[in-house]
Amino acid sequence: MANILRRHVLLLTVATLLLFSTVPVSNSIPFILFHGIGDKCSGGVSNFTQLLSNLSGSPGSCLEIGNGEADSWFMPLTHQASLACEKVKMMKELSQGYNIVAQSQGNLVARGLIEFCDNAPPVVNYVSLGGPHAGIAAIPKCSSGPFCAIAEALMKLEIYNDFVQDHIAPSGYVKIPGEMTKYLGHSKYLPKLNNERPDQRNSTFKDRFVSLHNLVLVMMMGLILCCQLNRQNYTEKTGSV
Ligand SMILES: *[C@@H]1O[C@H](CO)[C@@H](O)[C@H](O)[C@H]1NC(C)=O
Ligand SMILES: *[C@@H]1O[C@H](CO)[C@@H](O)[C@H](O)[C@H]1NC(C)=O
Ligand SMILES: *[C@@H]1O[C@H](CO)[C@@H](O)[C@H](O)[C@H]1NC(C)=O
Ligand SMILES: CC(=O)N[C@H]1CO[C@H](CO)[C@@H](O)[C@@H]1O
């Protein structure tokens, strides 16, 4: 993922710069960054964070959830979003408002933070880089590392099984076409985030999301987004957020 990110760094930087520079008042607004799955705040991501900070002239930091790499795979997104919520409330520098930049799966954490976090400091601008907001048709391929074997074993189970939902983060946004009943009944994250259950829609989530000053969505090809579904597949069922 680091390689792909490097290739896209120019594009991303331009997008981010545009955002940060077209809104004069946001010049000194701090930002936080959420990395993608299998990544961590140290390493390549810290360079990227530093680069964004250098180019935008805004202080920024990567917000780590749990231990980073492993937790990005195994901690359910509900829990990740609630940890993010607690962390931002403790960061004094964010209390007057802040911006969010998120990469791939980090966008699901970011949106959970924006929508579900009560009494949180306001999010001003949100830049989404390759966010699988409408879900993915399959769990992203695990390229290497100690977690792959465990993750792959668990994935052989039913994706909407409670155990998988509670132990594999990306299962929270798998949305398999043709399995909408199971998805709406048993997926523990995306249906709530996207207000997709007609009897459980919560206008507070939507209000918080639409209160953003700017929303920038950057599509990235060739990333885990190979599995991302297009709008057409979901025109009928997608929630109103
Ligand atoms: C971070 O950037 C420095 C130079 O600015 C470079 O030497 C280093 O290899 C980079 N680290 C990663 C993990 O990309
Ligand atoms: C950011 O700026 C600092 C200070 O000028 C510099 O040392 C650092 O290498 C820069 N980092 C990146 C990733 O551009
Ligand atoms: C909607 O979400 C808000 C914020 O979390 C919560 O306070 C409220 O009780 C929820 N409303 C319903 C009807 O569940
Ligand atoms: C996963 C899936 O069903 N994807 C389909 C979404 O719709 C496009 C056409 O609009 C198809 O090409 C995809 O196969």
UniProtKB/TrEMBL annotation:
InterPro entries the UniProt entry points to: AB_hydrolase_fold
Keyword Cytoplasm in record: no
Database matches in Pfam families: Palm_thioest (PF02089)
Gene3D superfamilies to which the protein is assigned, alphabetical: alpha/beta hydrolase (3.40.50.1820)
Signal in keyword set: yes
Signal peptide coordinates: 1-28
UniProt keywords, alphabetically: Hydrolase, Signal
Gene Ontology molecular function, alphabetical: thiolester hydrolase activity
Source domain of life: Eukaryota
PANTHER family assigned: PALMITOYL PROTEIN THIOESTERASE FAMILY PROTEIN (PTHR11247:SF59), PALMITOYL-PROTEIN THIOESTERASE/DOLICHYLDIPHOSPHATASE 1 (PTHR11247)
Listed name of the protein: Uncharacterized protein LOC108851914 isoform X2
